[in-house]
Amino acid sequence: MKAFDYLRAKSPAEAAAAAARPGAKFIAGGTNLLDLMKLEIETPATLIDVQDLGLNRIEPTREGGLRIGTLVSNTSLAADTRVRRDYGVLTRAIVAGASGQLRNKATTGGNLLQRTRCPYFYDTNQPCNKRKPGSGCAAIGGYSRQLAVVGTSDACIATHPSDMAVAMRVLDATVETVNAGGQTRAIPIADFHRLPGTTPYIETTLQPGELITAVTLPAPVGGEHIYQKVRDRASYAFALISVAAVIQRDGTGRVAVGGVAHKPWRVEAADAAIPNGAKAVTAQLLAGAKPTQDNAFKLPLVERTIGAVMAQAQDKRAAA
Ligand SMILES: Cc1cc2nc3c(=O)[nH]c(=O)nc-3n(C[C@H](O)[C@H](O)[C@H](O)COP(=O)(O)OP(=O)(O)OC[C@H]3O[C@@H](n4cnc5c(N)ncnc54)[C@H](O)[C@@H]3O)c2cc1C
Ligand code: SF4
Fold this sequence. Notes:
The protein contains twelve helices and eleven strands. It is of the alpha+beta class. Strands 4-5-8-6-7 form a five-stranded antiparallel β-sheet. α5 runs antiparallel to α9 and α11 packs across α12. The longest helix has 22 residues, at 298-319. It is globular. The N and C termini lie far apart (54 Å). The mean pLDDT is 97. Bound molecules: flavin-adenine dinucleotide and iron/sulfur cluster.
């Protein structure tokens, strides 16, 4: 690990101002960043610790939703009674991820910004356009079982690994930020994560040094909330694919998929196709998919998982 300065900011303004230093990086729970620093994939000159900023509360919004401070731990967010009652898909997605100890440290903002689990990204002997721009992509033509099938580019086929982000996407969350100049922004989560294109190292629409202060959820939409994660072992593994869904009594709903793209994947036409069944939804969701030989299994897996989720929603409605 390379030497770095450490600064514990006392206010969001102080943290954002400190982020103007060259090579500065925020640290929250550290569960992703420190691993990357040990491998020297991330080499920040200064770490700005954001844990004392008072951004660890979950509060109601005037619109009837919830405002989740960026430092709220994944454990606290999943356990919050309002989240469990009104945004069940979020609780289910969070507890499907990592381990209890990691969730105690992992934060809301940090989870959205965790980096890909592409194996070649972590192997510094391999070319990787995300880690080292312009060096190539070892995954294309390499081993790609875990990687993306849709929204890919010739530069990168990595997936976004977060479970929580998939639920946030289906709930239409908004990411609130502040920059070094004190200006605030509200970014719809649909626009927050980027596709790889020719710049896979630019993963979000955050500007350098911009601090996430909170994530807001709109007023509850009701319906059955389901999160189904498919992985190689029963726990403590990243998703091969995952499905977050909110299905209403009349059979309409919304669906987002994880493990298939560089960002949580949701398509308007797929939501509209929900009353027509899993095949129709998947056809819209994965239109234009370009799987590799190793990960073509994800296409039927998505369809079957959406089918299972819809059947689960129907059973719950029948039992209610
Ligand atoms: C073994 C293991 C298994 C895991 N399994 C899963 C899993 O199954 N599903 C899953 O979803 N996740 C999983 N995770 C990932 C874990 O959820 C993330 O590491 C965690 O959520 C990151 O949060 P953090 O607060 O620790 O972020 P940090 O490591 O502190 O930071 C991550 C990134 O976010 C930036 N950052 C943090 N806060 C802010 C802010 N407020 N504003 C701007 N930038 C900020 C940091 O600069 C850094 O770039 C796993 C992790 C490990 C180590
Ligand atoms: S898929 Fe993306 S993260 Fe993986 S090696 Fe290629 S460029 Fe790097």
